[in-house]
Amino acid sequence: MKILAALLVVVAPFAAAGGVPEGEASWRRTETALALVYGTNVLWQAVADPVQGKPYFHPLATPGGVVLSDLRPVDHPWHRGLWWSWKLINGLLYWDEDPRTGRSEAATGLLNWAAETRSDGSARLTFSLSYHPWDGPPVLAEKRVVGASAPAARGYTLDWVSEFTALTNVVLDRSPAGYAGFSLRLGPEQRRWTFTASEGRSGQNGIHGQPARWVKLSAGTNAPAVVIFDHPDNPRHPARWYVDQSMPYFSPAPLFERLLEMPAGKKLVFRYRVIVMDHDPGEAGMNRIQDAFK
Q1: Cys bridge to 32: 49, 85, 163, 185, which one at CB 3.0-4.6 A?
Q2: CA distance readout (Å), 156 to 7, 272, 281, 282
Q3: Which residue spans within the chain are E strands per DSSP?
Q4: How many angstroms separate the CA atoms of 143 and 112, rounded?
Q5: What CATH number is given to the structural domain containing 78?
Q6: pLDDT tens readout for residues 128-177
Q7: How large is the average pLDDT for residues 55-61?
Q8: Between 189 and 21, the higher pLDDT residue
Q9: What's the mean pLDDT in 118-132?
Q10: Is 10 a residue whose pLDDT tops 50?
């Protein structure tokens, strides 16, 4: 956790726009979920249910009330809003779930979680996870920290840090399609929105499989948008991205080109920044935020 604590710095890029008015942000908490309520809308909700295994964020909405995320859509019922899942670990499938049992071939186990909330709507969430065959010992451990900035009129930030430790020799692999890792599944309303990337490319055909420092899905200039930033210290930065306009779905995919081997004891840290906005500031604004993401 020392590495995570050192890396996690929550930055609110929209702080200059002012925070939420006093009393508008409130918390709703159960044993398995934490939600930030902004006005009459759920701004974001983190679900951490040991029965489900993989923690996720849904709904994920703009301060103006535009819900972005989709949960367990019919075409891919294992997609969970904003979430993390490996594809193959040592040859076992951790991604897809059997529709009859709701279980993957191997288990992503939530060991514990905790949340520190603040009156301004900011929070720090921590998770401990274990990756293992259903009938075997853990092969990979994860310590995860997500820092949520206080919401402002224009948007808010989620800073995500995942530190993985190999408990035995581990091979992280993917299907031929190349996806695995940090992912966001959006709702059908966002199919009409446009993907753009830091390197000036746009659309699925222009971005899919290409390296980029950030990728954004936007309804247009000064309209709602969501962007994922790949930290410059991440393995294989700048990431190659998996992008699917038809879902829509996008993911910085560190295994897109090839598998990754972790000898026992090796640690890997992945860090991402997600910004949810009601007013897309354009490419120049995104690049300024990327330059500050260090």
Answers
A1: 49
A2: 19, 14, 13, 16
A3: 25-29, 33-38, 41-47, 56-60, 82-85, 88-89, 92-93, 106-117, 123-133, 140-148, 155-166, 170-173, 181-185, 194-197, 214-218, 225-230, 240-244, 249-253, 260-262, 267-277
A4: 10
A5: 2.70.98
A6: 999 999 999 999 999 999 999 999 988 999 999 999 999 999 999 998 99
A7: 98
A8: 189
A9: 97
A10: no
- Give the length of the chain: 294
- Chain centre distance of CA 86: 13
**238 prior amide bond cis, ω within 30:** yes
| Alpha carbons 210 and 206: distance in angstroms, whole number | 8
User: Token pair of 117, please?
Assistant: 């909330």
Q: What is the pLDDT of residues 268-285, one digit of tens each?
A: 999 999 999 999 988 888
42: Cα within 13 Å, side-chain hemisphere = 16
Residues 6+ apart with CB under 8 A from 54: 80, 83, 84, 85, 108, 110
- Domain count across the chain: 1
Secondary structure of residue 140 in the 3-state scheme: strand
